Structure formats: structure tokens, C-alpha cells
Amino acid sequence: MESESSADQAKAAVEKAPRDKVASKTAIVTGASAGIGLSVGRKLAEAGANVVLVARGREKLDAAARSIGLERAMPFVADVSHFDSLRELLRATRERFGRIDILVNNAGLNHRGAAVGISPDTLAAIITTNLTAPIFLSRLVAEHMVQLVQQGTGSIVNVASLAGKIPVKHEAAYSASKAGLRAFGRALAMELDPLGVRVSTVCPGPVDTEFLGDLEHVPDIVLSQPMVTPDDVADAVLACIQSGKREVSLPALSGLLMTLGYVFPSLAAALHPLLERRGAANRRRYAASRAAGRAV
Ligand SMILES: NC(=O)c1ccc[n+]([C@@H]2O[C@H](COP(=O)([O-])OP(=O)(O)OC[C@H]3O[C@@H](n4cnc5c(N)ncnc54)[C@H](OP(=O)(O)O)[C@@H]3O)[C@@H](O)[C@H]2O)c1
Is 286 a catalytic residue? Predict the structure, then answer.
């Protein structure tokens, strides 16, 4: 009798213990040959996951997979805006690893400047890459994950931006795409949560990667928020996979400020000149760090 009750207690303890949502799982990470995606792929593999790394350029992607280790990492060359490739990505992942537990929609595109000075095709490409592609891929993967729920749980994490929390001048299509991605993630989370699939959104401010571009051309308002590293963002992505938290901003205080600015546009307008001055000062500091060969 006593041994039965301790067996029950042990079983209850195992059931109550937080289950690792990464070890022995299989993850697809888009935009994974550099920056945030590469760091996410590396950290997932270090935590015991198999990773399928997606990017357009083969050479860098193969090098990224080799640096992680080909027993865990599979490179898959694709442009996320080519939807036939995404169907093929699913097929190839299942063929190699048998299942998909985690999807990180991270590949992104931005072109800065006045919207009327950017070609309509380029504006549309920003929406296709940053919004339509993650929607398409999430839809494909979610169906597979829902069928797998008996065996575990699924996680989808979308990498959006603070620009999706408050629109940025000269990044109109980019801001729209990231705001749309946040909305999609929140709605999908409500649909999939009861089916055991968690959907999270990570909204970073400026991140020190090539994507940020030449510091001279980054708007002051963007640089007004503290710069974070690709590893900081990757840590937030992994924390979301483990916790299922719906949305995380980096830094958290910047996320709060953007929400306040969105809800109270007159507050945003009043703070704008102050933030632009701070951004200009940060730019000088970052440029000096780069000139001295240090990380910004
Ligand atoms: N850096 C920032 O300041 C910042 C701030 C907020 C949010 N974000 C978001 O973070 C995400 C990742 O940015 P990052 O800074 O890590 O960029 P990054 O360092 O430039 O890396 C981008 C990665 O995505 C791949 N990629 C680009 N377009 C692709 C496409 N159409 N299909 C497949 N792969 C593609 C690139 O490889 P190939 O070129 O070979 O395809 C590369 O591996 C983006 O969604 C971006 O919007 C970035």
C-alpha cells in the first residue's frame, strides 16, 4: 500500500515537473545562416534539439550547419517567399527527422525610405517575406503539430520587432508587416492553445546584425532604444518555447514604452524629439565602438 502511494507520488511529481520543450525535439528556423536565426539554431542544438536551418545563400548556410554539427543540423536552401519551397521544407524535415515540434519564423526583409520612393514590388516583397510567408509556413506546420499533440507539444515563435508595436517613419511596410505578424500570432495562439500548440512573438529593438545596416542610415528613433545582441534575442526565443509566453519585447522597458506611445499618440509625439536626440547620441557611441573594433 505504502509503495503504491510513493509510486503515485513519484508519478505525480513527474507529471508536475516542467517538461523540456527543446531536448530531443525538431525545430525549423528560417533566416538561420546569420544573426538572430543562427544564434537560435545554435542554442536549440546545444539544448538537444535537431535543427533545420533555412536561408537563401548555400555557402553561408552550409557553413552554419557544419559549425553546429551535421548530425543535428540540416541546411535547407530556400527563399521563404517561394511557397512551393516551404512545402518541400516540411517534406524534407519529416523525411530526415520524422517530426516537427518547433517553428521559428525569423527570416525578414526591410528597405528604408519614403514609401513613395520605394517600388511597389519591393514594398509587396516586404509584406510577403515578413508576414505572408510566416502565415503560410505556420499553417502548414500547425496542421502537422496538431496531429502530433498526443506525443508532445508544439511551439511556434515569430520574430517581429518593436517597429510592429509602434510604426516607424520611413519603414512603413516593415512596420505594417511586423504589426500584422503580432496580430496573426495572437489570434493563432487563441486557436492553437487548446490543441497543445503554443504561439509566441518576440519583438526586439535594434539588434547588432547586418540587418540593421549602415549605422548612418538607421533612423535616430530606432537607435534611441538600447541595442541588444543576437544571443539576447535567441535566449528570448528559447524562453518562449519553454514557457509558451505570448509576447516578449527586448528590452522589456522599450516594449512598455512603445505600447504607451501607441495607446497615447500625443505622448509619443511629445517624447519624439527627446528620443531622437538620444538615438543620435547612441549612434555616435556605437560608431566610436565599431571604429575601435569593439561590439557596439
Ligand atoms: N537586426 C535588427 O535590428 C532587428 C530588429 C528587430 C527585428 N529584427 C528581425 O529579426 C529577424 C532576423 O534579423 P537579423 O538581424 O538576424 O538579420 P541578418 O543578420 O541579416 O540575418 C538574416 C538571415 O535571414 C536569411 N534570409 C533573409 N531573407 C530570407 C528569405 N527571403 N528566405 C530565407 N532566408 C532569408 C539570411 O540569409 P540569406 O540572405 O542567405 O537568405 C540570413 O541567414 C528579421 O525578421 C528582422 O526583421 C531584426
Answer: no
